[in-house]
């Protein structure tokens, strides 16, 4: 029998609440378990206001200590000691609450004196912990006076709740040096959505008197309350103890059937799914959602059910805009602005994003960069500098400039922020095409395929890289089991011409990319011709390479295979396109 089924008739059946302290007192999120009414936030000055209703919750989970021993042994109350090890590097978020006598003292010096006298080994009290004591006292006094509520109010810890949902410690802290961390907030929102809370309540602005992080902690408590109500609550320690006044002493979480957000083999990699979720939230409204064109079975003479993901319609003409915005919105930009080395697309994307953010951009391009791409970089307001014959030469010039000026370098592939930004394409693609079997993705430096592979890792979707025969840095790295340097000679060298994918890309791709298909330049040109002839899409060589693998047979799908082909770049000189399509 669930907790809700045990409640008496005086309680409004079906309502539960998650509660956290806030500047104005308490923030509660109330949920009607019958689903007849939408969940909502409410701020209370006093705890008793919550219990007065309406509605009166049948069950409440609160992020505040309940049950205070007369003496403390070890590093804190039993619940604190039980959960610290589960939270990984976030152990500092579990405060050591002292004895009841210390908590009920109002003067800080008296609190410290009593804490030292009633703990073994002797422990002082931090000012941060001291500020919690009035709220702890409020609940303690209530439960001592109203025994009926002792089996309805449960202590929770939001980080433990999030850890339980994810099935592993979180990647990003909620705050850094007291300042809210957007990546941490986004990671937690993604987990709340994965736990089944409605998107409207997860993303709603909290009421006056409460901060956004308070609201997320209340929502985490609500998730625990819901599981406790269904009989899946788990106390730490198990079984819970009681203090000298009969109050339960336990931090409650739950036992899920499985982790709600199942982590893939990428959990130990530098770009896990929550990082991509955070990037998607960060760049929303800055990068376009690009369309999918479904062509059906037999397209291009293949046996597959084919669709095209038209990322060539992205701002600045390529997927690179995603990573550029994620960098600019994640990192502190110095007065010297940002710098990037690029064959053209990355530079155009950084220039575009920097222009939208009002940031100075200096872009280093190799001599092989097409005039159309250089013109686009300048059109978006960046300074262009020629940095040598090949891409790696431009990167060396960029590195020298960064060292001399202090500008922020935005790397096209060897940066977590870049890879996570490109990974938002995979996330978006899956939402548009949830039944894909395979995706074909062109590879240059590997930032794009790393992001997409990081998103699809651990799913049934097979990620296949496509490289020109004369530019095969990722395939060579996978064969050598380490990044290696290759020579580059291809019609697509300006965008797919990296000589070495680097360690980050290799680490992400080695387990998450099925294999790499190599295509001849002639197949890339044919793909460009077909895209213009049949769909009036002006696509550069690198953007057409994935389709080239299908057209040439470099990738041979199975009959009926649901195949997604990424068309990822549109920055082509129109005179070149005219030559190809003549």
Give the topology, please.
Blueprint: H1 3-6, E1 15-22, E2 25-32, E3 40-44, H2 47-52, E4 59-62, E5 72-73, H3 78-84, H4 100-103, H5 108-117, E6 119-120, H6 127-130, H7 133-145, E7 153-155, H8 158-166, E8 175-176, E9 179-180, H9 182-194, H10 199-203, H11 212-229, E10 233-242, E11 248-254, H12 273-283, E12 292-297, E13 305-310, H13 320-330, E14 338-341, H14 345-357, E15 361-365, H15 371-379, E16 383-386, H16 391-405, E17 408-409, H17 416-432, E18 438-442, H18 447-456, E19 462-468, H19 473-480, H20 493-496, H21 502-512, E20 515-519, H22 521-535, H23 541-552, E21 562-567, H24 574-581
Parallel strand pairs: 1-4, 4-7, 5-6, 13-21, 14-15, 14-17, 15-16, 18-19, 18-21, 19-20
Antiparallel strand pairs: 1-2, 2-3, 8-9, 10-11, 12-13
């Amino acid at each position: 029998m669930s907790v809700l089924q045990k409640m008496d008739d005086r309680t409004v059946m079906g309502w539960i609440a998650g509660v956290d302290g806030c500047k104005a007192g308490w923030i509660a999120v109330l949920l009607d378990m019958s689903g007849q009414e939408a969940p909502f936030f409410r701020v209370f000055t006093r705890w008793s206001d919550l219990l007065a209703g309406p509605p009166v919750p049948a069950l409440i989970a609160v992020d505040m200590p309940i049950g205070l021993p007369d003496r403390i042994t070890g590093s804190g109350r039993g619940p604190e000691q039980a959960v610290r090890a589960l939270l990984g590097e976030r152990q500092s978020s579990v405060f050591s609450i002292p004895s009841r006598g210390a908590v009920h003292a109002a003067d800080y010096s008296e609190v410290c004196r009593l804490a030292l006298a009633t703990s073994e080994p002797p422990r002082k009290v931090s000012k941060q912990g001291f500020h919690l004591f009035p709220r702890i006292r409020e609940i303690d006094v209530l439960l001592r006076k109203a025994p009926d509520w002792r089996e309805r109010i449960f202590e929770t810890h939001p980080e433990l709740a999030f850890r339980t949902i994810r099935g592993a410690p979180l990647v990003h802290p909620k705050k850094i040096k007291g300042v809210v961390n957007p990546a941490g907030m986004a990671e937690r929102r993604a987990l709340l959505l994965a736990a089944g809370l409605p998107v409207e309540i997860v993303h709603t602005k909290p009421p006056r008197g409460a901060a956004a992080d308070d609201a997320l902690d209340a929502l985490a408590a609500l998730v625990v309350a819901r599981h406790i109500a269904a009989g899946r609550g788990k106390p730490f320690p198990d079984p819970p103890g009681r203090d000298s006044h009969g109050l339960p002493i336990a931090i409650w979480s739950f036992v899920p059937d499985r982790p709600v957000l199942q982590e893939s083999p990428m959990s130990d990699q530098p770009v896990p799914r929550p990082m991509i979720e955070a990037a998607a939230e960060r760049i929303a409204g800055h990068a376009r959602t690009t369309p999918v064109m479904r062509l059906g079975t037999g397209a291009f003479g293949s046996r597959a059910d084919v669709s095209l993901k038209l990322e060539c319609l992205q701002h600045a003409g390529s997927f690179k805009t995603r990573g550029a915005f994620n960098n600019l919105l994640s990192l502190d930009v110095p007065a010297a602005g940002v710098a990037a080395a690029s064959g053209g697309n990355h530079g155009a994307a950084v220039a575009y994003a920097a222009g939208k953010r009002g940031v100075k951009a200096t872009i280093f391009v190799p001599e092989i960069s097409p005039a159309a791409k250089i013109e686009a970089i300048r059109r978006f307001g960046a300074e262009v500098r020629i940095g040598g014959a090949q891409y790696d030469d431009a990167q060396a010039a960029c590195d020298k400039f960064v060292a001399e000026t202090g500008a922020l370098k935005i790397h096209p592939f060897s940066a977590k922020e870049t890879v996570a930004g490109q990974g938002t394409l995979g996330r978006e693609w899956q939402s548009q095409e949830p039944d894909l079997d395979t995706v074909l993705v062109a590879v240059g430096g590997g930032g794009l395929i790393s992001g997409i592979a990081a998103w699809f890792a651990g799913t049934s979707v097979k990620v296949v890289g496509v490289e020109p025969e004369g530019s095969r840095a990722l395939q060579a790295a996978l064969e050598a089991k380490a990044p290696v340097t290759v020579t580059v000679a291809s019609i697509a060298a300006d965008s797919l011409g990296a000589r070495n994918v680097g360690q980050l890309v290799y680490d992400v791709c080695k387990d998450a990319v099925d294999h790499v298909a190599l295509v001849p330049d002639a197949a890339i040109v044919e793909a460009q011709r077909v895209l213009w002839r049949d769909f009036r899409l002006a696509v550069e060589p690198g953007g057409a390479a994935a389709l080239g693998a299908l057209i040439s047979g470099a990738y041979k799908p199975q009959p009926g295979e649901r195949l997604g082909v990424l068309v990822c770049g549109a920055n082509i000189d129109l005179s070149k396109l005219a030559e190809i399509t003549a």
